[in-house]
Write a structure and sequence with these properties.
mainly alpha, two-stranded parallel ribbon, 5 strands, about 55% helix, globular
């Protein structure tokens, strides 16, 4: 019997190349060997964007399109929206009864988000309890494996601690998941910082070629290369980081590396070479996305069937939890 995997993604709009190179590439591999549940976690989106929900539904649709276009296959994995399975909220409530406040206040990502998102009022119960809902998402499906990057490992450890605490009160009901640390290549945005929608520096999966080129063309490079004749250091250049992700031509990469260090190649030429490889990857994805956009009925069927399959597992877990709690 295949081991069960759970992972989710917040619907904040269209996904970018960082999502593709990081989470999605790993998810696509896992769906071939595991029983995978992939969830669009719309309750999580409300935790920071509760003041304006006007784009929540359309954002869920954008994420679904990007998932399917990138290679997630509803025949191989279960794809659904969190709020379509009400047991997520039920288990979240049950877990919140035993979740110590101190554990939540110490969560490093909570402190980081409070500092980084000062333009939003995040002093809410739900935002503090974000890891508890995340734990409920995972535990509802008795997922044995949860693929995460380093930045989410603290949340997963808190999930494991919550399982131990819950089970100490009510018996061995919930399964303690194992963390699968997945490779997350460095994918910088156009300004050199980590690609992020909140920074306004993203290259999106759905971007047309002309838009993609304009973003790549204006990307920052090694600051030492003020003039075409100045030698540079690829290791200090965000464009080179994207080459390492998308360029699979080792000989060409060696030539670009040498050319940059000797000023034998200019930044614009380097960016044009990058665009070729990004387009090689993104062209088929964009075409597949466009095809799905024309089939709204199929998209609804995928979500409906995914929610039904997820709910079947979720109900069994909640029956066990209700019996245990009494």
């Amino acid at each position: 019997m295949q081991q069960r995997v759970f992972s989710g993604m917040r619907p904040t709009g269209r996904l970018h190349l960082g999502h593709l190179a990081g989470a999605l590439t790993n998810w696509i591999k896992l769906q071939n060997d595991y029983n995978c549940f992939y969830c669009i976690v719309d309750w999580h989106a409300l935790m920071s964007d509760y003041a304006d929900t006007s784009s929540l539904k359309s954002n869920c649709g954008e994420v679904l399109l990007d998932w399917l276009a990138s290679g997630l296959d509803p025949e191989k994995c279960t794809i659904f929206i969190q709020s379509h399975v009400p047991q997520h909220a039920e288990l979240h409530l049950a877990l919140s009864m035993v979740a110590p406040l101190g554990w939540l206040h110490r969560c490093p990502t909570y402190k980081e988000q409070i500092l980084n998102l000062q333009n939003k009022d995040l002093s809410t119960y739900a935002f503090l309890g974000y890891p508890v809902l995340m734990a409920a998402d995972i535990l509802l499906y008795k997922a044995e494996i949860v693929p995460v990057g380093d930045d989410q490992s603290a949340h997963l450890e808190l999930t494991r601690e919550l399982v131990r605490r819950f089970n100490s009160f009510y018996g061995s009901v919930l399964l303690e998941p194992q963390i699968m640390l997945t490779p997350t290549p460095k994918v910088p945005g156009t300004d050199g910082r980590k690609m992020s929608k909140s920074y306004g520096n993203s290259i999106y999966i759905a971007d047309e070629p002309a838009v993609m080129w304009e973003k790549i063309r204006t990307m920052v490079t090694d600051p030492a290369r003020e003039r075409r004749t100045d030698p540079g250091d690829p290791d200090k250049c965000p464009v080179w980081d994207l080459h390492k992700v998308f360029n699979n031509d080792e000989q060409e990469k060696a030539e670009i590396d040498r050319g940059c260090r000797t000023a034998g190649i200019g930044c614009v030429e380097c960016k044009k070479k990058l665009l070729v490889h990004v387009e090689r990857v993104m062209g088929p994805i964009r075409e597949k996305r466009s095809s799905y956009e024309k089939k709204p009925g199929l998209l609804m069927d995928i979500l409906r069937e995914g929610a039904a399959k997820a709910a079947d597992t979720a109900r069994r877990t909640m029956d066990e939890v209700m019996d245990a709690v009494g």
